[in-house]
Write a structure and sequence with these properties.
Length: 131
């Protein structure tokens, strides 16, 4: 996994938090993101999570795929059909844990059209708010 992919996952997590904290004060936002499991993940944790997300998205909708990395990082991914009906996109419930920290969110992923070497087959488009 390239460093830029890990950064994109962190950016997606931060984007999800921004949507939840749009009206919050700056320190509230910092405190909210500071306690998210993904901020504690090692590169290896992010790599395992990313492989699991890609595998789950390539699999059957409604089937939960779990992952674990080391003693304290774990999570699960449950894909479903894209709520907007796009054939190359899916909605996925992503749950992450690190130690006692837990977080879950719904994200839209679409097939990555990039032909660059090492490009991930799925690209996170953004968080799903249900509208």
């Amino acid at each position: 996994m390239h460093r830029s992919e890990g950064i994109r996952w962190l950016a997606a997590a931060a984007a999800a938090l921004v949507t939840m904290a749009a009206d919050a004060r700056p320190m509230d936002f910092y405190n909210g993101i500071r306690d998210q499991p993904i901020t504690r993940f090692s590169k290896a944790d992010v790599a395992v999570m990313t492989r699991t997300i890609n595998k789950a998205l390539d699999g059957e909708d409604g089937v939960t795929t779990k992952w674990e990395s080391g003693a304290s990082a774990s999570g699960s991914v449950t894909p479903s059909k894209d709520p907007k009906g796009r054939p190359d996109c899916k909605l996925a419930r992503v749950e992450n844990r690190h130690g006692s920290l837990q977080n879950a969110g719904d994200y839209i992923f679409c097939r990555n059209k990039s032909t660059a070497k090492g490009a991930s087959p799925w690209q996170v488009v953004g968080p799903w708010s249900g509208s």
